[in-house]
User: Fold this.
Amino acid sequence: MSTTGTSRPFAVVTGASSGIGRELANVLAENGYDLLLCAEDAGVADAAVALTAAGTPAEPVQVDLATYDGVEDLVAAIDNRQVDVVALNAGIGVGGPFLETDLDADLELIQLNVASVVHLTKRVLPGMVSAGRGRLLYTASLASVIPGPYYATYSASRAFVLNFAQAVRHELADTGVTVTALLPGPTDTEFFDRAGMTDTRVGHMSKDDPAEVARDGFEALMAGKDHVVAGSARNRVMFSSKGLPEPAKAAVHARLTEPEEQE
Assistant:
């Protein structure tokens, strides 16, 4: 697919096969964007087929962004097209006590949630700045402002994303390029199952609709906001606790994320 010669804006969405990423793709399609969808699983092709059938040109790229070559393959698929929006949404979690989690799983998380975000940003940002326009949306999490026992590497990775997004936003002032951090709370996606966190209090609790989270993110992105706490009012209450001492925040968070004892 090529958008050369079309006046339609062009967006790239990572983690687009399901969950918040899939819903971000839907809301971008509703607003007239051609799409390049990226994920490591075959579901990204299904997402592209569904959007194309509904009238939105959508191209799938199935690559593993936890690898250097995977990010470079995505950049190659962009093929020097002018990108109007990049939604850096791909991410995974690893649940459980840090002493017990698998080292390779933790390192893969850091590669995907942290390294690929820096890598992809480094590749797409020069073209945006040169054009004097563009919008970057980084999916962080409410966990980014609260230490996250029992998924420590995930919480820390999202803190990196939030800090990185805010820092880059400051550097891009007056370039025409905006940066927005999306901070969802517990959302009804496959995250908790994939992270091995279904045996936690947060795994059992009610969760936000990913379509609502995506719409909140899109609206904040279009408004040029620095961040948005997406989803239910409960999330904004949780966000307000960021002023507590770090040990207190960690203790509160641990009650939600600690694995329950099996009888």
